[in-house]
Specification:
Layout (H helix, E strand, L loop, with lengths): L7 H19 L3 E5 L5 E7 L8 E9 L5 E10 H13 L3 E2 L5
Antiparallel strand pairs: 1-2, 1-5, 2-3, 3-4
Length: 101
């Protein structure tokens, strides 16, 4: 019969990874992502929290083939939604890059 339980050392490793992920999400700052084709860049920055919520500024930029910025699109969203956006973009093939401007 096959055991359906995880070995204890695997459970500990997964729990430790989850803690590291939670700490990483809690750090204030700025992050940059570039699309797989290289034509778009997104910057997600934490901004000052209000009494009711934590907010992030999301800046999308369309890039020309020479790397010059063609257009900016600014928006604000709740931090929770910005984290979900970051995770979804990474899943879609976007990659982290150093600051672009």
């Amino acid at each position: 019969m096959i055991s359906l339980e995880w070995p204890e050392e695997c459970v500990v490793v997964v729990a430790a990874q989850e803690k590291r992920d939670q700490k990483r999400q809690g750090r204030p700052g700025s992050g940059w992502l570039r699309s797989a084709c290289g034509s778009k860049v997104v910057r997600i920055t934490t901004i000052d929290p209000t009494a009711h919520a934590q907010w992030c500024e999301v800046v999308n930029a369309d890039l020309a083939s020479d790397g010059q910025i063609q257009a900016f699109h600014n928006s604000r969203m709740l931090r929770y939604n910005a984290v979900r956006l970051w995770q979804n973009l990474l899943r879609q093939g976007w990659s982290e890059v150093p600051p672009q401007w």
